[in-house]
């Protein structure tokens, strides 16, 4: 009888051939970067008032698939069409992610495979929502979900990046339960921060349409204050989490990720207050939207690193016995 590590039955990333590991990293990180990138390009569309640069979908204009320059619209059709084109790139990465997961990472379990399917489903949903946004002429009821779906896809993609570098065993906590609870509460508050930020943008002058500047009946100042209050609450929770991480001697990876959240949150706060007091210049609003994508990924990472999918091969207790008949 020969002892065989359980990881042979469900290979981890480290067990793959070097070229496969590189391919997996490129695909998983590429998917995350593109999911964040679509938020940035969507911000460019909004801030350049190119939301209706193409008046139909999937063609840019009736009987015209690609954009054309005109004196009245300038380059707005190209900006809008470029954002649509990036959706195709997202689709390619989402398909590649699912394929490499099925081919090489099935051993990480059914939940991992199902999670790897979500970017493809979400990207397809985004294409449909994008069509609805155009058909409804940038109605905020459609525009806001368009952004929030991207936020959800960033969360899923960040979880996949964290987990693909982890082992293949059962999930276990690597920090005390109170810290897990605190990180989850912080994640819930971060969702409120992003939702209120979306309402703030949709209530302000950067609604995305060249002909409409105020698309919601909400007072921009009031919504901005609520958004700022939610950020303050999040910041207080983050300070508490940082103190607990060091007092309870949490793993180095978790502490390092928490400092990333601190850095992104501080940067977002500086940009947010600066844009508010300077009249919402387009460049700063665009940087704030970029920061929202980074903020989402960082918060997701801190929650994910409170857990570990430990490689079963690391424990002698996880060695199974293979009968002689299985060695043939």
Architecture blueprint of SSEs:
Blueprint: E1 2-5, H1 18-47, H2 76-104, H3 110-135, H4 140-164, E2 171-173, H5 177-203, H6 220-247, H7 252-277, H8 282-304, E3 307-309, E4 319-322
Antiparallel strand pairs: 1-4, 2-3
Keywords: Cell membrane, Disulfide bond, Heme biosynthesis, Iron, Membrane, Metal-binding, Oxidoreductase, Transmembrane, Transmembrane helix
Main location: membrane
Pfam families: COX15-CtaA
Task: Please give a handful of descriptors for the protein shown.
single chain, 328 residues, mainly alpha, 2 domains, two-stranded antiparallel sheet, two-stranded antiparallel ribbon, 8 helices, 4 strands, flat, disordered N terminus, transmembrane, metal-binding, COX15/CtaA_HemeA_synthase, oxidoreductase, cell membrane
Verbal overview:
Pfam families: COX15-CtaA. It is a multi-pass membrane protein. With 328 residues, the chain is mainly alpha-helical. It folds into two domains: 1-168; 171-309, no CATH class. 65% of the residues lie in helices and 4% in strands. The protein has eight helices and four strands, in the order βααααβααααββ. It has a two-stranded antiparallel ribbon. Strands 2-3 form a two-stranded antiparallel ribbon. Mean pLDDT is 81; it is low at 1-11 and 311-328.
